[in-house]
Design goal:
Order of helices and strands: HHEEEHEHHEEEEEHEEEHEEHEHEH
Number of helices: 10
CATH superfamily of the largest domain: Zn peptidases
Strand order of the largest sheet: 1-2-4-3-5-16-6-15
CATH class of the largest domain: Alpha Beta
Shape: elongated
CATH topology of the largest domain: Aminopeptidase
Oligomer: single chain
Largest sheet: 8 strands, mixed
């Protein structure tokens, strides 16, 4: 195993890659320049097996160890940026107005490239490393699409690991937990169908705005009075669209929102009880509803054995005191969850220091974190695939 001193020599080069990607952000699945840049770097490291065009612009590259036959483990980095106008004022700020790497995927990609260069040179492991460069984490569920296109079976991946930077966590520190670490994400739409008319004669109408207000308040009791308070469930109404004039009660009101939970069974509860509550309230006023529910990212659940391997790799890099195994699960979502449903694995957080928060226009990945991410990947490979 290596301590952090082994990886400082890679920082300058990996930082240059990261800043190039930061200057040239691309969105969703449309990552032609990003994918070409990555493929060229991988080839320059002497990696022969590089497959592109997976999930449109995704890449999987294989590095064979010199320690003999063994399993294949997957290491995943996401590549896409966000539709945000950058305000970091860094010399390497985005050159494309309205697009920026506001979540650190440029750093994730550069760290995996740095690990790829080191591993391709040393190959001090048995078996195979599958480098997974994934598109469309932010909005397009690229992780799901890569799984659906069969990368786990196609490349014989038996375990899979992910990593994300964490603003507010000190540089050089890691944080992880066994079990749920990030929430599942669902969305819902409700249309309240009343009967519109003149605002001066509300008694002749069925006012969907008043009904919608009752539904919004009623949905809050599904969390506060219908679920175990020790289990996490968030139901947030985030859109409300109604009316066109001061003196007209509209026919319809549109409500939309999001559901977050760390307990998979609560997704079933939300999908069943949100329309039941909304319909009951609406019918009490003589109205009807239309309801749609979309399941997006599942709960991101770390597996026990793989979490232990991740902890061991990180602690060998930075010491036990710098690796927390009691990470507080977050209600944000992560489409790496699809890969963890397909194969056992673990997702870990890497300190980004005192930077702006993720998805903030002032955010920038902290290049001081680069050697720690590279070192973690290398130690993980040499921990799991012991030569």
């Amino acid at each position: 195993m290596h301590n952090i001193d082994t990886f400082w020599d890679l920082q300058r080069e990996a930082t240059a890659w990261r800043r190039y990607l930061h200057e040239n952000p691309e969105l969703d699945y449309q990552l032609p320049n990003t994918a070409e840049f990555i493929a060229e770097k991988l080839a320059s490291f002497g990696i022969n097996h590089i497959e592109t065009g997976i999930a449109e612009t995704g890449i999987v590259a294989l590095i064979q160890g010199q320690g003999g036959e063994g399993p294949t483990i997957g290491l995943r980095a996401d590549m896409d940026a966000l539709p945000i106008l950058e305000a970091s004022n860094k010399p390497w700020s985005s050159k494309i107005p309205g697009k920026m790497h506001a979540c650190g995927h440029d750093g994730h990609t550069a760290m995996l490239l740095g690990a790829a260069k080191y591993l391709a040179d040393t190959r001090n492991f048995k078996g195979t490393v599958a480098l997974i460069f994934q598109p469309a984490e932010e909005d397009g569920r690229g992780g799901q699409k890569m799984v659906q296109e069969g990368i786990m079976d196609r490349f014989g991946i038996s375990q899979v690991f992910g990593m994300h930077n964490s603003p507010g966590l000190d540089i050089g520190k890691f944080s992880i937990c066994n079990g749920p670490i990030m929430a599942g994400l669902d969305e819902f739409d409700i249309i309240v169908k009343g009967r519109g008319g003149h605002a001066a004669s509300p008694h002749r109408n069925i006012d969907p705005i008043v009904i919608a207000a009752q539904i919004i308040m009623g949905l809050q009791t599904l969390v506060s009075r219908n679920t175990d308070p020790t289990e996490s469930l968030v139901i947030s109404v985030t859109k409300l669209n109604a009316g066109t004039a001061y003196n007209i009660i509209p026919d319809d009101v549109e409500i939309a929102g999001t559901v977050r939970t760390l307990v998979p069974s609560l997704r079933d509860f939300a999908e069943q009880q949100i329309p039941a509550a909304a319909r009951g309230i609406a019918q009490g006023f003589g109205a009807e509803i239309e309801f749609k529910y979309r399941r997006l990212e599942p709960v991101t659940v770390n597996h026990t054995d793989e979490t232990d391997l991740a902890i061991k790799a990180a602690r060998n890099l930075v010491g036990s005191a710098s690796v927390s195994d009691k990470h507080k699960p977050r209600m944000g979502s992560e489409d790496f969850s699809y890969m963890l449903e397909a194969r056992p694995g673990a997702f870990i957080f890497l300190g980004n220091g005192s930077t702006a928060s993720l998805h903030n226009p002032a955010y920038d990945f902290n290049d001081e974190a680069m050697p720690y991410g590279i070192g973690y990947w290398v130690n993980l490979v040499e921990t799991v695939l012991v030569a």
